[in-house]
Write a structure and sequence with these properties.
The chain has about 290 residues and is α+β, with helices and mostly antiparallel strands. It folds into two domains: about 5-120, D-amino Acid Aminotransferase, Chain A, domain 1; about 125-285, D-amino Acid Aminotransferase, Chain A, domain 2 (Alpha-Beta Barrel). It has helices spanning about 25-30, 45-60, 70-80, 125-130, 150-165, 210-220, 230-235, 265-280, and strands at about 5, 10-15, 30-40, 40-45, 85-95, 110-120, 130-135, 170, 175-180, 185-190, 195, 225, 230, 240-245, 250-255, 260. It binds 4'-deoxy-4'-aminopyridoxal-5'-phosphate.
């Protein structure tokens, strides 16, 4: 069955040419996006994703393309039409179509595109064995809290990581602080046993998974600190993992070619991975 996309008010086969040449997303990367997973036909953490979308839109001076209620209905309809039980929805709002000019008119209507694909969550062996990470300089801009479609530094970093046989790039700022991954949030359990991740702010994207995992960790009684950690602290860490909507809670067992601790997923990581997978209705290969 051909995959169905939603483009500005119409459901169309994904191969349909449908984007205007002068879309501001295409010409200026003037747009924002969300990635939402569906399990068993249900969109997970939808309110959190739509709250973040509204924040991102406000940050780029873009009105919502539809009401929130209409958006929910069309996401559900698109999921239904694609007949996928485990799916990932990609939603993109650009600032609209107009003759190319940096400055735009206030009344310009945004463009909305949504696509769906079968979910490809980490394999059982990736969850069991963990994945490799390559560290690279964080070369992004000063508003990483906006989920902008301008992802050039992220895709370049991720490609370099992939070329080095790594699943993710961890981005390091000029002070040696690991901000986050190219498309995920970064976590360690430090030498004192404290679970650490970078605090919210302009240096990172506030992941929906990050929020949920913080809540799960606190509910589990795990000591947590939203405090930056350095590359040096990563090298001394007891455990490391990454989180995102599609990577779930994924153990990191090697960084820059060196094992994290004994090179096996740690206990806290395994516990959180199992809790998170359970909450999503997904079978966890990693048990707590
Ligand atoms: N940071 C960055 C830079 C990302 O691109 C993503 C995923 N889009 C995340 C963090 C994780 O966010 P989420 O948990 O909402 O998928």
């Amino acid at each position: 069955m051909a995959r169905i996309a939603y483009v500005d008010g119409r459901f169309v086969p994904i191969s349909t040419p449908a984007i205007a040449i002068e879309d501001r997303g295409l010409q200026f990367a003037h747009g924002v996006y969300e990635v939402i997973k569906a399990v068993g036909g249900r969109l997970l953490d939808l309110d959190r994703h739509l709250d973040r979308l509204e924040r991102s839109l406000a940050a780029i001076d873009c009105p919502p393309p539809t009401s929130r209620a209409a958006l929910v209905l069309l996401l559900e309809e698109l999921l239904r039409r694609n007949r996928l039980a485990e799916a990932v929805l990609y939603l993109q709002v650009s600032r609209g179509t107009a003759p190319r000019n940096h400055v735009w008119a206030d009344g310009l209507e945004p463009n909305l595109v949504v696509t769906v694909r079968p979910a490809r969550f980490p394999t059982p062996s990736e969850q069991r064995e963990g994945v490799r990470v390559l560290t690279l300089p964080d070369e992004r801009w000063a508003r990483c809290d906006i989920k902008s479609i301008a992802l050039l530094p992220n895709v370049l970093a991720k490609q370099r990581a992939a070329a080095a046989g790594c699943r993710e790039a961890w981005l390091v700022d000029p002070d040696g602080v690991v901000t986050e991954g190219a498309s995920s949030n970064a976590w360690i359990v430090d030498r004192e046993g404290v679970l650490r991740t970078h605090p919210l702010g302009p240096a990172i994207l506030g992941g929906v998974t990050r929020d949920v995992v913080l809540e799960l960790a606190r509910a589990e009684g795990i000591a947590v600190a939203e405090r930056p950690f350095t590359l040096e602290e990563v090298r001394a860490a007891r455990e490391a993992f990454l989180t995102s909507t599609t990577s779930l809670v994924l153990p990191v067992t090697e960084i820059d070619g060196r094992p994290v601790a004994n090179g096996r997923p740690g206990e806290t990581t395994r516990r959180l991975a199992a809790r998170y997978a359970g909450r999503c209705g997904l079978a966890a290969a990693v048990t707590g």
